[in-house]
Amino acid sequence: MRIARALPTRQRRLVGAWCFLDHFGPTDVSTGKGMRVGPHPHIGLQTVTWLLEGEILHRDSLGSLCPIKPGQLNLMTAGRGICHSEESPVPRPAGMHGAQFWIALPEARRHGEPAFAHHPQLPQVQRDGFRVSVLAGTALGERSPAEIHTPLVGLELRSTDAAGTQFPLDPGFEYAALVLQGSVKVRDEILAPGTLLYLGQGCDSLALRCDAPAVMLLIGGEPMQEAPLMWWNFVARTKDELTQACRDWNAQAEYFGKVTGYDGARLVAPLPPWAIQGA
C-alpha cells in the first residue's frame, strides 16, 4: 500500500498539537492480504483515522472491535499506554484511501487512562461549493463530538465541482493544508495530492479554489510551547521515556494490555539509536 508521510518532515515537525499525518492510498486491496498491521503500542498521543474509501477493522487492548468506513471517525487516546491492530475486513471493499493523524497529548493528559471512541457521524456544513466535515474542534459554528485535549481543529473540505471560498481561520492557530484527491489552489499555490503546505499563524481567512472535484484536509491548532519527542509509535518529553517504552513493549509490560482476535504476530519496537549507542 502506498503511504506518504506528510508530517513530520525536516521542515515542519508540528502543526499545533498535530504531530503526525500519513496519507495512504488510493490502493486496490481486492487481491492479496489487504491492510494488516499487527498489534503495536502507543503512548502520549491520540490517533485519528479517516477514510475516503474502503474499510478498516480496529482492535485494541481495551477490548474494542470496531470497523470504520468513509465518513466515520475513530479516535484512540493512548495516554500512559495502549496497543491495537488494524486490518482489512473479510470480505473487504476493493479500494483503500484515507489518512491517519496523531495528536500529541498535553502534560496533564499524557499519563492518563487509555480510551477509544467511534463516531459514526460528524457535523457537516456547506460553504461556497465545499462540504466541510468537522473531524476535530470547532468550525463554521459546528463542533466535532471527538474529545480532544488541546485547542485545535481538523477538517475535510470536499467539492463535487468547481468551488471557491474565503475560509475563516482562527488567527491564534497555525495551519497546514493537505490535498488528498484532485487539486486545490490554496492562496496562490496549486496543491496536488501528497504535499503538505504550512500556512503559518496570524491569518483570519484562507483563499481556496478548485476547478474540479477535490478533497483537502485542513489542520490547525495553538502552537505548542514545548515540542514533544517522537520515536516509532511513541510520543514523550524525554529520550529516557521513549527508550523505556520500547523496552517495556518488547518485554510485554502489562500496562500496554493485549489485543485479542488478531491472527498474526505483534510488532517489535526498534530501540532508538541513542539507546543502542549507550548500550
From TrEMBL:
Domain of life assignment: Bacteria
Alphabetical keyword list: Iron, Metal-binding
Single GO molecular function: metal ion binding
Ligand binding (Fe cation): H40, H42, H84, E86
Cross-referenced CDD domains: cupin_pirin_N
Domain annotation Pirin C-terminal: ranges: 158-251
Gene3D superfamilies: Jelly Rolls
Cofactor note: Binds 1 Fe cation per subunit.
Cofactor(s) the record lists: Fe cation
Residues in Pirin N-terminal domain copies: 2-103
Record-linked PANTHER family: PIRIN, PIRIN-RELATED
Family stated for the protein in its record: Belongs to the pirin family.
Protein name: Pirin
